[in-house]
Q: What sequence folds into this?
C-alpha cells in the first residue's frame, strides 16, 4: 500500500501524522511511504530522517494525496485537503465530526473511507488513540489557564499556588477522565486548591485514593456546578462523550456568577466545547473575554508541544496504521472490532451513530459498510 503523510496546515499545528520510526516500520512491512517535504519540521524531524527510514519525500501535498491509497494525518482535513480526497481512499486522522457539518458533508461527498482516531476503542472501553493527546492537553490546561489569569492577559491576577499568607487559586475540573486526571495532577502540583467533578462515583473514589486527600472530589450535577462557580478562579472543561458533541455545562448566564477575570479552559472544544460561550481559538490568538471571563479554547492544544505529542501519538497509532496497510481497511476492521469503532464515513455514508444524532443525518452500521 502507498501511505501518504502531508504537512499539517491547520494554524499553528506543528505535529505530523507519522514519525520516521513509524515510516520505517511501514517500509519494513513492504509498504511505500510518501512524506510531504517539511512535514515533520515542526516536530523536529527532518526530511533526511524520513529518507533514512526508507520513505520517499514528495514536494507537494497534492502529489501525496494523488498517489496515496491511505492518508495519515493528525488534525481533521481542512477544506482544501478535503477537495483532494477521492473515492476508495482511506483517511486515518482525528476528525471530530459531531460539531463540524461542513467537514462531514465534504467527506461524504468525497467517497473516501474515514477512520477517526478519537472513536477507536480498546478492550477496556478506553480510547487509546485519543488518550495520549488527552494526557498532553490535560497537563497543559492548568498551565494555559494560569497564563490566562495573569493581569496582563485580562485575568484576575491570581497566582495558582499563592504565596505564604495569600491563598492559592481555586480550580474546578469538570470531568475526571484522562484529561481531568492529568489536569488535576498538574494543578495540584502547582499548589492550587482543586475540585474534580464527575458523574462516576467509582471514578471519584479512584481519584480520592490516588491523590490521597490533596484534592476534593464532588459528584457532578447542575447544582454542584452552580455552587462552585462563584468561588472558582479557573474552571477546566474536561468532559467527553466519544464521537458526540460535548454537553454544555456552563451557560452564558452563569458567567455573571463568576469572579471578574476568572478563566475558563475548554479542553472539549474539538467536540464543540462544554461552555456555551466557547469558540475555537488558535495558539496565535488563544484567549478572548466574554462578560469579564477569560476563555482559553485552543482547538489543538497538544500542537504547542509538538515533539512530545507527535511521538506519543505515533506510538499509539502505528499498530492500527500497520493493520490497515497490511490487511486493507475492510479486513482490518472485520478482524478488530475496536478499529471498526473508528469507522465514521464510507463511500458517501455516515457510519457513526453519535455523529448522525448530533448532525441529524442518516447512519448505516459500520458492520454493513465493511461487508460492502
A:
Amino acid at each position: 500500500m502507498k501511505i501518504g503523510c502531508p504537512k499539517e496546515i491547520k494554524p499553528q499545528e506543528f505535529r505530523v501524522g507519522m514519525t520516521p520510526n513509524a515510516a520505517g516500520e511501514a517500509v519494513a512491512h513492504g509498504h511505500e511511504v510518501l512524506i510531504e517535504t517539511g512535514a515533520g519540521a515542526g516536530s523536529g524531524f527532518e526530511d533526511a530522517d524520513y529518507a533514512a527510514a526508507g520513505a520517499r519525500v514528495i514536494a507537494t501535498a497534492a502529489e501525496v494525496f494523488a498517489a496515496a491509497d491511505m492518508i495519515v494525518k493528525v488534525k481533521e482535513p481542512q477544506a482544501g485537503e478535503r477537495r483532494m480526497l477521492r473515492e476508495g481512499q482511506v483517511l486515518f486522522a482525528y476528525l471530530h465530526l459531531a460539531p463540524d457539518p461542513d467537514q462531514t458533508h465534504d467527506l461524504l461527498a468525497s467517497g473516501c473511507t474515514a477512520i477517526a482516531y478519537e472513536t477507536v476503542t480498546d478492550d477496556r472501553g478506553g480510547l487509546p488513540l485519543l488518550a495520549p493527546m488527552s494526557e498532553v492537553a490535560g497537563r497543559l490546561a492548568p498551565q494555559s489557564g494560569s497564563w490566562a489569569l495573569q493581569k496582563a492577559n485580562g485575568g484576575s491576577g491570581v497566582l495558582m499556588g499563592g504565596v505564604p499568607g495569600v491563598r492559592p487559586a481555586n480550580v474546578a475540573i469538570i470531568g475526571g477522565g484522562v484529561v481531568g486526571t492529568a489536569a488535576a495532577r498538574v494543578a495540584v502540583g502547582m499548589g492550587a486548591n482543586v475540585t474534580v467533578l464527575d458523574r462516576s462515583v467509582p471514578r471519584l473514589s479512584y481519584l480520592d485514593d490516588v491523590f490521597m486527600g490533596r484534592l476534593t472530589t464532588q459528584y457532578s450535577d447542575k447544582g454542584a456546578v452552580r455552587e462552585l462557580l462563584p468561588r472558582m478562579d479557573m474552571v477546566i472543561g474536561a468532559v467527553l462523550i466519544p464521537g458526540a458533541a460535548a454537553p454544555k455545562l456552563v451557560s452564558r448566564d452563569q458567567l455573571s456568577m463568576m469572579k471578574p477575570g476568572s478563566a475558563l479552559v475548554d479542553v472539549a472544544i474539538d467536540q464543540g466545547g462544554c461552555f456555551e460561550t466557547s469558540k475555537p481559538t488558535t495558539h496565535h490568538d488563544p484567549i478572548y473575554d466574554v462578560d469579564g471571563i477569560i476563555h482559553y479554547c485552543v482547538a489543538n492544544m497538544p500542537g504547542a508541544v509538538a515533539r512530545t505529542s507527535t511521538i506519543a501519538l505515533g506510538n499509539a497509532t502505528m499498530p492500527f496504521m500497520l493493520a490497515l496497510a497490511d490487511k486493507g481497511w475492510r479486513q482490518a476492521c472485520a478482524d478488530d472490532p475496536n478499529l471498526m469503532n473508528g469507522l465514521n464515513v464510507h463511500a458517501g455514508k455516515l457510519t457513526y451513530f453519535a455523529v448522525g444524532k448530533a448532525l441529524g443525518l442518516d447512519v448505516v452500521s459500520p458492520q454493513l459498510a465493511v461487508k460492502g
